[in-house]
Every structure is written in C-alpha cells, then in structure tokens.
Amino acid sequence: MRVVVITIASGLLCARAAAAQTGTSGTTTASPTSWRSIPTLPSDIDQGKKLLANLENPNAKDAQKLCPGYTATNVRNSPGGLSARLVLAGANCNVYGTDIDQLDLRVLFGPKSRLNVRILPVEIAGEQESWYDIKEDYLTRTVNGVHFNPTDSELDFQFNRSPFEFSVARKSTGDVLFSTKGSKLVFENQFLEFRTELPEKYNLYGLGEVMHNIRLGNKYNRTLYATDVSDPLDENLYGSHPFYYEHRYAKLEDGSKKGYAHGVYLRNLHGQDILLRKKSLTWRTIGGMVDLTFYSGPTPADVIADHVKTVGLPAMQQYWTLGFHQCRWGYSNVSDLEGVVEAYRDFGIPLETIWSDIDYMDQYRDWTNDPVTYDLNAFSAFLNKIHADGQHYVPIFDAAIYVPNPNNASDAYPYYDAGLAADAYLKNPDGSLYVGAVWPGFTVFPDWSAPGTQAWWTDSFQKWHKEVEYDGIWLDMNEVSSFCVGSCGSSNIAQNPVHPPFSLPGEPGNLVLDYPEGFNNTNATEAVSAAAAIEARQSANAAVEPSPTVALFVSQVTQGVDARAINYPPYVINHVQDGHDLAVHAVSPNATHSDGSLEYDVHSLWGHLETKATYESLLKVSPGKRPFIISRSSAPGTGAWAGHWGGDNASKWLYMALSIPQALSFSMFGIPMFGVDTCGFHGNTDMELCARWMQLSAFFPFYRNHNVLAAISQEAYRWAAVADSSRTAMAIRYTLLPYMYTLFHHAHTTGATVMRALSWEFPNDESLVEIDRQFMLGPAIMVAPVLDQGANYTNATFPGGENEKWYDWYTHEARSGSEGKLVDLKAPLGHIPVFIRGGNILALQHPAYTTAESRKNPWDILVALDSEGDAYGDLYLDDGESLIQEKTTFITLEATNSHLNVSRKGQWTSSEPLSSVIILGVSKKPRRITLGQAQLDKWSWGEKAQILKMTGLEGATEGGVWSKEWELSWK
Predict the structure, then answer these.
(1) Is 479 one of the annotated active-site residues of the chain?
(2) Which one of 286, 305, 628, 925 has the lowest number of neighbouring Cβ atoms within 10 Å?
(3) What is the CATH number of the domain that holds 952?
(4) Catalytic one among 46, 188, 447, 476?
C-alpha cells in the first residue's frame, strides 16, 4: 500500500453538493484565508416544513373511494385515432385540488408500434384550467400529427363509456397490456391518479432515477422528482424518467416459452408517486396531464429502441471520450493536476482526460479560475502540454450564478451583470429576482424560457474558453439545487455568505472515516484506528456549541395569481428531502419563469434544459465538433445532448454492485454514455474494492475515477494491485474501443443499447428476469464481475442453452450455455471474467496510452463461430470528432462456410494494416488458407482448443485493412 498524504491548500475551501447530505448539520464560521472572512449560512436555513407524505399517512384521503370518475361522451373518429369528451360523473371530490369538470380524450395511432393516449382539460371560453402541458421543444411529442390507419397498428384501444375506463391490447396475442378497469380516473388541478391492472409476479423495469435492482418489486413505491441528494437507496434522485417496460412469458405448445415485452411512457415531469402492488400499478402526479405512449415491442430491445427514438436519439460521442478519465474533489492547484497526469504515465496506466471539481474556481464562481492556485498562465501551460500529448481536460460547472455584493465595488462579477442585462434569471412571483444560496454564496438561477438566456449563456462559455481551453463540460447541481428554502438572499445580498450550512469533508467534526464493508477483515489495524476516531468525533460533537452565524432569514414572497397551492401542494409526494418539502435543497416551486410557467411545473426539466443550452453553446465554442457533456440531472431526451454519471455514490461494495442496474436503467432511458464514480465518491475506498471497481468500470461506456475531498487518494496507481488490475482491464477496453464506438453509432442512429441486460439479448429466457450482477456490452461481450469483498471467484449464467457458444476472452476456451444455472468462475484479484458470445466477429485494435495513439495501431480480427459455424460483425469508422461527417465507412464482416467476407460502404480511409485473424470454434484442421488470391503460411490450429490463428498479415494488408473488400478462406 502506498503512503498517501492529503493536503488542502490554504485559502481554498472546496465544496460539493454531496457534502450537504453527509456532513454534520451544525453551522460553522470558517476563516481559511487572511484576505477574506467566510460567513456561514445558518444550519436551519435549508429546513422547510415537516410534511407527512401521503403514502406514509394512514389517514390520507383515498381518491378512488371519494371521487366519481368520468363518463365519455361525444365520441368521434378522427384522423389516425379517435376523440371524446370526458365529463365528471358526479359531485366534485376535490381531494387534493380542484376537480376538472370536462376533459378531452385524444387517441392517436402511429407508427404501427406506437399508440398515444392524451387526457387534458377542455378549453372553455378561451381559457384553460390551471394545468401545465410540457412544451414540444422541451420534450418531444411521442405521436405528433401522424395520420396513421389504426387497422395497421400492432395495438388496439378499447374503452367503456360509463364509467370511463380504457385498455390497450396487443393485437397479435390479444394480451391486455394496460387496463384501468375497476378504477377511476382522478383529474384535479394538482393531482392526477390512474391505475392499471398487472399480472401477478410481473416483471417491470425502469421508472427512474432510483438506486435499486433492475427488476422492481410488487410491494414498492417509486417517487420521481429531480433532487440534489447523495444516492440513497429506493429514493428519488437527480433525474426523472417516467418510463417502464414490462416483460411477460407465454408457454408454447412445445413446452418452450416466448417472451413479449411492451412499454409505457408518461410524458409528465411533475412530482409523482408510483405505487407498485401485487396486481396493479397506480400513478399519481401533482400536476400536468395524462399523456401516455404505449410501445408494442415485442422484445425489450424493440421497446427500448422505440422509446429512445421517441424522446431523442443519443448524441454520438467523440472517440476520445471513451478513454479513461480521472478526477477528484481536492486537486487544489495546477501542480496537483500535473502530478496526477505524470504519475499515471510513470505507472503505465492509460489516462485520456483529467477533470477538475470546484477546486479550480475563483470563490466558486462559474467561468472563473482561482487567481492564486489556478493561475491562468500556469494553467494554460498545463493544458497546452496535455493537449500536445493527445489528452483532454473537463471542468465542473455549477448551475447557480453568484450575485455580487452591491456595497463592495471590488466584488465585481461581469458574468452576472451580463445575465442581468439579458433578463436571464428566475423571478419571484412579485417580479423580483429569486435569490437562493449555493457554493459562491447568494445566487440566481438561469431561466431557460427567457429570450435572452441562450445568447448570454453561449457568450459566457465562449469568453471563458479563450482563457481555459476545456474539451467538455461537467454539469452539476442542476436539479436545480439551492442551500436555502425560498428566496433567502432577496434582502440579504450584502452579507455574502460563502460557507454552506453544513461542515465540509475534512473540517473539524467531519473527518472522512468511513470505509467499505468488510474493511476490518483485510485491514484490521486501520479499521481499529478509524473506529476509534469515529467514537472520538461523536463525543466531541456532543460537547460542541453551535458557532456564530450570519443572521439570515427565509424570504416569504407573496404568491401570485395562480390558484394552486404551489409551495405546499395538498398531495405530498414521498420526496427524499427533509420533511418531504419540495423547496428543501432546491429552488422553490413558486419561482417564476419568463413564459409564465412556475418551477412547480418544470422543476425536473431544469437540468435537461441547461444541458440543451450548454450543448448549443459548445457548438459555438468548438464549431464542427461534437460537444461532450456529462450532466447530473436528466429527463427523457437528455441523451441527445449529454451523458450522465451516477452521482455521489459511496465507497461500498453495495454501490459497486448497484452501478450495473443503474447503467442498464439509463440504457433504457436513452442515455448510453453512463458511468459512476469508480472506487466510490463518499468515504474512503480500499485496495480490494478499488481494484474490483476499476475492472468493472472498464466495461462501462463512461469510465471515470472520482472521490470526495479529504478522503484518501484513490487514483489507480496508489496500490500496486489496483494498478495491475487497471492495466489489465484497460488493455481489454482499449482493444475493444472500435467495437464500443460502433455500438454508439448504432445507438445514435437506431436507438440500440450499448450496455445490455441479459434478458434483452435472450428475451425468451425467463430465468434472466432478475440478472443484474452481470451484463452484456453490445451483442458480443458478456462481463461477470466480482462484486463481493474477499471473494476469489464469482458465478454467472450462460444463456442460450447447449447450442449457444461462449468463449473465454483470455483463453478462448469454449463453453455451452448453462440453461439458467449459475456456474462458478475463478476470479482471483486482478482478473475479471469476460466472454465472447459465439456468432460474433470483433474488429480489434492494438491498445496504446491514449485513444489517439490507439487509432494509429494495427488491427486484429477475432471471429467467434456459433454452433453452426457462422458469425457476423460490423465496424463504423469516421474521424472521431466531427458533428457532421464528410466521409464515413461502414464495414460488414460475415463468416460462413469457412469463409470470412469483408465488405464496405463509404469513403473514409485509414492506413492501419491487419496484424492477425483468430477464428474460434474451427473443428477441423484446414488444408489451405488464402487471403484473396494469396496463400497464407503463418498460421496454427489446435485440435483441442479448435482455434485457428493467422499472423503476420501486415504485408498482405499494406495500405489499410479496411481500404477495400476482401475474403479469407480456410478449407
């Protein structure tokens, strides 16, 4: 174990949103510099009302018992569907708002796999009831003006007039996919409820963002509402994705089973509770409308691709983004960054990108650099060096904009002034600026509906890029978060609090002492020391009196004309924040937007819209290049502009295991560029956990190591075993980069997934419904990681039955499918089991230190024949960075009847030769091998292994292996 020395630069208080969830709640007054005092927000400023969530309240009103439902009238066919008027079928119940007396039902078919059901308030005398419909340019419509013949649809819509109930069925099987039979539609201005029947023991997936296993339970509640919180289990997190798919299995006459999947998407981003019960699913939202889209499938892959096409196909990533990234909160100056980059090279561990957390900022203000620790001259020299070496830099960017002290002329902040001139900020209902508090102190928040916001946003990023040549942007705090309840800075701007209302990691009383589960088993001495330190801290905290704070008060702004109870709606969702208050650790629901909407209606869209605005800005910053953005908050369609990381996780074995279902969920949501803070963010990691995690994350699309301030350093070179594990796993990853890049091309063009659950690839195998401790990377690679402390083996299932072939990545040894049974696999520390599925061909490139160097290396082709002796693969080639490609090439590789045929379409050319071809599953020794017309002499075949290997092919493919079509034959 390497000795780790942690240093925190004097004059730099580093802060992160996650600390708000893990630090102590007591307030402090910190003065880390001689040039500036740091007043502290009071600890109770982020505490709202103590509300009881309706799901927790046994006395909560039951809308199903109290409300009358609706009756359908004036039913008429319309182009592509039908419409009707829904009239309240009795006296108003007004359980959690005001009943809407009349509703419009609009049913629209098209394309054949899709059906849209919209229920919304009727316009009466040119006015609408108090409700909100998401703008088309915020979230795309799923079915929009398509005149499709319903008879051609794969779905059927049926309804009962009185009481109004409806169902959606799959025509080919008659299976009812969604049915409100036996329940009532409740539609109020602040509360919607509808329920569907489900089969017993259903298999349902999605409804994020939540930390949970991939398959959801049938006695389980889900809450969706974007919030700043540190990855608690089974609670709402940073984004909102109200989409699920359900997977059912039908028994056929021959005794086998066939899987059928369908999907359901609610285009509504209001706060919502979803109740999963034994035979039903109930949806409750606190606003908006019913806008349901049904996807017929019939496979999970079909459903997911259809949904992704609906909300927005994922952005195509630049090639370099698939390399390895390193970050931490605590790189306190440019020298720290230089040291990390140099150490990775010294230890021979590939490093593509170095990141900065908020350490680099000048007093935590966006678009700035600390003039002492991140001096622009030194920083520019550093960036020039890594760019010359083919490496990249990505800084964090927070959502809130600092409000300068109006009484201090030296506290100028031109970026704020420019935003103010553009009228780009959220307002209070009375028209004044909404002023919250985040890392810089008092802050305002961009209003994405304001006409001048985009131009100001873009101009700011362009100006900053002239000073700091960044290669991408990391968007944080964009749920959107605030450290106080309400517009707390409206009358207190001159007080300038900078320290948040909680202790930061490493400050007195908040030392980072936590370690992974089982740490004491292998690190007994350190564990005893940590336990003693925790006990001492608890005793010390009990005796400490609160430190003095700046007197700040929550501004209670009078509510505007909206008739709804905005800040405290009558139905209280089971929100994770303190007291279930929507205003805690967030901009309050009554913050007002330029277009008249309230944060209440669009809160979970804030980060999504910031991502879109940033994408548009980066197009101007680096014209012609694909923007690279990683965002914490997300919504349906965010993947069209950005990737996502799993947020502020913990250095625990459980969190490593849960990263797999996290990643698979975001595959469902159309955000394939996903990864987590490898080795964990909160707490201290240890050698074993970090080694296993570095191996696992090597097979995630986004691969980054990142951890919290004041924890031990966890770069991959800190332990010899972690360095060895990382080099081995990275060698595989970088070899597979052309395959991964091709998977992103398919995701970008067709909605296909990159990381995949086994049940998506084998939809007829019911034994796979809960498998989320192993996964597929595309159709060809299966990964079965070790996820338990102290284990030197793991177990995995090999789907497909006895006719399915799986080949060990390292030995190329073949095995058949295990038919639902788990198989033990040896996996000592440093080894992660990886398998190639028979029937696939992989175009591989020799790995190097950076992706740019790798792209210049020779190629290998690995053919994994299936039981019939066939295989298929493809390869997408372009320049790796341009938004619009002038030239591309698509390579198809097909193996059958002892021939490998390589065909191509496109004009992109490259000069790298072919080094070798390895064919797995060749049962007989060939007599003759030819490449085109030339006979090959350098080859070998093993009867036991059934591996045919041809080497020394560089001369035969001089000028570029993909420059022309060719054929390889083994007879």
Answers:
(1) yes
(2) 925
(3) 2.60.40.1180
(4) 476
